[in-house]
Write a structure and sequence with these properties.
Largest sheet: 7 strands, mixed
Radius of gyration: 19 Å
Number of helices: 10
Shape: globular
Order of helices and strands: EEEHEEEEHEHEHEHEHEHEHHEHE
CATH class of the largest domain: Alpha Beta
Structural class: alpha/beta
CATH topology of the largest domain: Rossmann fold
GO molecular function: oxidoreductase activity
InterPro entries: ADH-like_C, ADH-like_N, ER, GroES-like_sf, NAD(P)-bd_dom_sf, Zn-ADH-like_protein
Pfam families: ADH_N (PF08240), ADH_zinc_N (PF00107)
Oligomer: single chain
Strand content: 25-35%
Mean pLDDT: 95
Protein name: NADPH:quinone oxidoreductase
CATH architecture of the largest domain: 3-Layer(aba) Sandwich
Helix content: 25-40%
Distance between the termini: 10 Å
Number of domains: 2
Length: 324
């Protein structure tokens, strides 16, 4: 099979498009013929050696796919050959085939194209888990989303609205804010033109935000950490700016709010049944039109480096997808 291969940590440009052995289905596993793979910010960190996981070489990056089951291992009973599915895995998604534990595979309802299904998995599922399990977002609460036009930020806007929140979108350009508004944001803040801390204070009449979905880091995190309501939840999702902030813990003490880490990959492994229930709810919202997948561009697998560079440079509105 063809795959994108990382042979050593380094620039994204060093990734190669190579022949790799076809996977086989071991006990408890299936093999999926991949139709689409989602491209995510952590994939770019991983191949540069900047992520918390550091696999042995060579490895195939990519964690979310949609496709068809082509082989079933022993003791797998809830899937069948020829079935459309989505799957998540730590590695292996940037390829024509992937072997994966059957526990990480779910049937894909008819009516969801493979390109959108692959893009739905990580971004929307991260936002869903963050807002539902980690923040316990309640109807009527104020939700601030930074990076609100990116894949997971846009998903948080949509899911926040589906859960009944008042959503404040924070972006760097008017074009990105317009996209966030199109997908449900109630209030828009351009942090390049407005002081984020002061604007949040004004909008919330000094009360602060109940929940912040923070995936940018750097100055955005700093401003949000000083803009929390009593009993608020500051969700640490990622650091798209490239700057991991230092958090003054006295703020949480004085303002009485929680700083909550969101690591969706670990969640899927520690609580697969809850993850499966979340995906069923997401599929329902998708089919009802409450959440939508915005695919910025679908590129051939061989152009994975181009797709990753676009993601890492924060030039994407929605998600990038690869198609073998």
């Amino acid at each position: 099979m063809k795959a994108i291969v990382c042979k050593e940590f380094g620039p994204i440009s060093q990734l190669t498009y190579d022949d790799m052995p076809d996977p086989s289905a071991k006990k408890g596993e299936v093999v999926i013929d991949i139709e689409a793979s989602g491209v995510n910010f952590p994939d770019g960190l991983l191949v540069q050696g900047l992520y918390q996981m550091q696999p042995d070489f060579p490895f195939i990056p990519g964690s979310e796919v949609a496709g068809t089951v082509s082989e079933i291992g022993e003791e797998v009973t809830h899937l069948k050959e020829g079935q459309r599915v989505i799957a998540v895995n730590s590695l292996g998604g940037y390829a024509e085939k992937m072997g994966v534990s059957a526990r990480q595979v779910m049937p894909l309802p008819d009516g969801i194209p493979a390109t959108e299904a692959a893009a739905l998995v990580t971004a929307h599922a991260t936002a869903h888990h963050a807002l539902k399990q980690r923040a316990k977002l309640a109807q009527g609460e104020t939700l601030v989303v930074t990076g609100a036009a990116g894949g997971t930020g846009l998903a948080a806007v949509q899911i926040g609205k589906a859960m009944g929140a008042n959503v404040i979108a924070v972006c760097s350009t008017q074009e990105k804010l317009d996209l966030a508004k199109e997908h449900g944001a109630d209030i828009l803040i351009n942090y390049q033109q407005q002081d984020l801390k002061e604007t949040l204070k004004e909008i919330t009449q000094g009360r602060g935000a109940d929940v912040v979905y923070e995936c940018v880091g750097g100055d955005a995190f700093e401003a949000c950490s000083r803009s929390m309501a009593w009993g608020g939840r500051l969700l640490v999702v990622g650091f798209a700016s490239g700057e991991i902030p230092k958090f003054p813990v006295n703020l949480a003490l004085v303002k009485g709010y929680s700083v909550v880490g969101v690591f969706w990959g670990s969640f899927t492994k520690h609580e697969p049944a809850v993850f499966a229930d979340n995906m069923k709810e997401l599929f329902t919202w998708y089919l009802q039109g409450q959440v939508k997948v915005v695919v910025d561009e679908a590129l051939p697998l061989a152009k994975a480096t181009q797709a990753l560079e676009k993601v890492m440079n924060r030039q994407v509105k929605g998600k990038m997808v690869l198609t073998p």
